[in-house]
Amino acid sequence: AGGSQKLFSLGAGDRQLIQTPLHDSLPVTGTSVALLFQQLGIQNVLSLFCAVLTENKVLFHSASFQRLSDACRALESLMFPLKYSYPYIPILPAQLLEVLSSPTPFIIGVHSIFKTDIHELLDVIIADLDGGTIKIPECIHLSSLPEPLLHQTQAALSLILHPDLEVADHAFPPPRTALSHSKMLDKEVRAVFLRLFAQLFQGYRSCLQLIRIHAEPVIHFHKTAFLGQRGLVENDFLTKVLNGMAFAGFVSERGPPFRSCDLFDELVAFEVERIKVEENNPLKIIKHVRELAEQLFKNENPNPHMAFQKVPRPTEGSHLRVHILPFPKINETRVQELIQENLAKNQNAPPASRMEKKCVVPAGPPVVSIMDKVTTVFNSAQRLEVVRNCISFIFENKTLETEKTLPAALRALKGKAARQCLTDELGLHVQQNRAILDHQQFDYIIRMMNCTLQDCSSLEEYNIAAALLPLTSAFYRKLAHGVSQFAYTCVQDHPIWTNQQFWETTFYNAVQEQVRSLYLSATEDNHAPHLKRKEKLPDDRNQEKTAMDLAAEQLRLWPSLSKATQQELVQREESTVFSQAIHFANLMVNLLVPLDTSKNKLLRTSAPGDWESGSNSIVTNSIAGSVAESYDTESGFEDSENNDIANSVVRFITRFIDKVCTESGVTQDHIKSLHCMIPGIVAMHIETLEAVHRESRRLPPIQKPKILRPALLPGEEIVCEGLRVLLDPDGREEATGGLLGGPQLLPAEGAL
């Protein structure tokens, strides 16, 4: 059990104690972290910390084997709650020095006698523990912590390690502040890094995507949403951390909503706001750091009153005696007999396992921007009103009003809030059964959709394109009897549709919502045999329950369910994922098969908007999606020699289905049935589009409104037909450009 202890003696008047920490998940460091900062200094250790988190190679060298072990352990422990998942060798034997040339990241320690051998390494960050220096090769670009976290961490470490620095310039400095003893100082430094990770990962649970609950939870992390909401899309440090193997392990270990919790879970859920409020008050920072340090210290020393150990030391100069009795040789046979006797005793004894106390993991606060930027767009209320009015005019067939407001609405759609407003308004009209449009309305809606999709960055959360996805299959116009043209045929020229990361993220969001609905309906209707009538909740409380809340309840009940009930729940989830896979296969066919299927040049040219170039560039450079994966050339229509568009679409969709279904635990039989289904769906869709394309070409062009000749007053005459005009900026719009006011409108060319 946590905090258990064992007293023993070797029979030489000694009294020795072994005790286990309270929580296995928290690292045990002794004084190694404090020693590492003493050896290398704050800045150097922070550089090594960033190097390890961004998967660089780190090598320590020292004349002391003990210090090598301590330094490696200290650096690894600073990563908590992340766990290092690459080669970790505190003392590398001489025969294995070639390991230093391996391509994988590592943390390795070597003795200083091999100093000449290691200086030839070009891609390794070398730390000299005895000299207190680190060497970063020129070829390595070391990403650093984002501001203001970097400055705050440096300041907090300085307060702990150099408390006199802040008052060093005072004319009458206060009495010298004594440092904490080395064991407590070690925990205070670790507390600073624990606070750092709580701030860095604030709100991470709101970006978890729940795919399956039973038999084992399957959880993904929506990285692009997290980066976008934190305002760190362009920060390469956090991007590398989220794409790393350590974070993949973090999500799989800490993602489930019902498990044993530790200090980090409480800190990231309840203390982040306190850290933010106190960031400018050194006294409060030190107080909080010491509170955390006390908990870390108690974890390693759960019974401090019992921690007294007695180990007799040799007297001074005893090694200089002439007559020293040699240590008696140990009887190997007797040692082996004792081992076998104790093994026989323990064979029948139950395994000593620590009982885990599981609980619902607190969700914590939502994700917020790291810089506290004001995310409201300047004059956004007016811009949203313009978009709403324009959509209302379109559906009310007020053509003149629509023509007046459409340019302003299209300009407003450069802002994210306006794009979200568009999807919400169009969704309301679909609910009101107003999805059948005439030709003019259809043209306006398509223009607004294309304008919205044009500005959907691959580094955003994909939520705008995902919200438009069902709308493209809802709005349509009738071309002839039995022939309808849907909006998806006119919004295909956007690279987002060939971005596999977008489809994965959208699929996982949809599955999470379906799994939530599955268990909500089971709770309400009491279909599930294990739910008692008294557990039913009012509708309003059910609506507030997130997928994670429901998952926690299901995981709590799982051990008490019968095998038949467990199997039934697994089958229901399997069917949910399978039905969503079929639905998404149809959506992908809609958006990947062009209206004119004869234009196979789309697959061969490298022009902008081309499927292959668009897909490869976006997916390869994208920071989103599953952890530690590179699609390389597997993420687009790479086979340019084969000009059969149907085969290209089938390959793309099959690759997507394979990936998401395998990760979601779908059985091979279901995956094979999907593989057989996809070519048929594509062929049927192409056949349907032939009639749509034929009828769409027969449509007469929409007449543009003509500018009426003005009625002339007596004596007036027209001098010329029109004047070309150029409007120059005069400086008034500079303050409202960019993020605040949308695009710059001037200079602009027009006519009078």
UniProtKB/TrEMBL annotation:
It comes from the Eukaryota. Signal peptide: none annotated. GO terms for molecular function: guanyl-nucleotide exchange factor activity. GO terms for cellular component: cytoplasmic vesicle. The keyword Glycoprotein does not apply. InterPro entries: cDENN_dom, dDENN_dom, DENN_C, DENN_Domain_GEFs, SBF1/SBF2, Tripartite_DENN. The keyword Ribosomal protein does not apply. GO terms for biological process: regulation of Rab protein signal transduction. Pfam families: DENN, SBF2. Residues 1-261 form the UDENN domain. Keywords: Guanine-nucleotide releasing factor. This is SET binding factor 2. It comes from Mustela putorius furo (European domestic ferret).
